[in-house]
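ARCHIVE CARD
CATEGORY: sequence design from structure
SOURCE FIELD: tokenized fold
FIELD CONTENT:
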């Protein structure tokens, strides 16, 4: 009976030791997991920040191109109007010239 009692105590002690070791490993694994999760979170945040910065730069560049295109369109419209005015003036001058020619012929 005494032998069984000692063996039971030894087994209980071993089980407690194994349980304590398991708890220690659990805490270590949890800590490692949390550190890896934080590292991944930082990496993803950096990637997201880089992508956002790149997107902002691309949007700014696109806005500059759109602004430039609008300015060119305004410039072209002004040139078109100026051309139309000059053509009108030339036609008027040509008509006057033709009128003068006809008067001289008469």
């Amino acid at each position: 009976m005494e032998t069984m009692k000692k063996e039971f105590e030894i087994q209980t002690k071993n089980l407690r030791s194994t349980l304590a070791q398991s708890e220690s490993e659990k805490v270590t694994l949890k800590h490692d997991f949390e550190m890896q999760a934080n590292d991944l979170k930082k990496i993803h945040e950096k990637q997201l920040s880089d992508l956002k910065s790149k997107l902002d730069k691309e949007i700014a560049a696109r806005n500059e191109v759109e602004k430039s295109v609008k300015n060119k369109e305004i410039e072209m419209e002004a040139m078109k109007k100026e051309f139309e005015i000059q053509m009108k003036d030339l036609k008027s001058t040509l008509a006057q010239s033709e009128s003068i020619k006809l008067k001289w012929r008469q």
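CARD ANNOTATION: The chain has a mean pLDDT of 94. The longest helix spans residues 2-105.
SHELF: design records, drawer C
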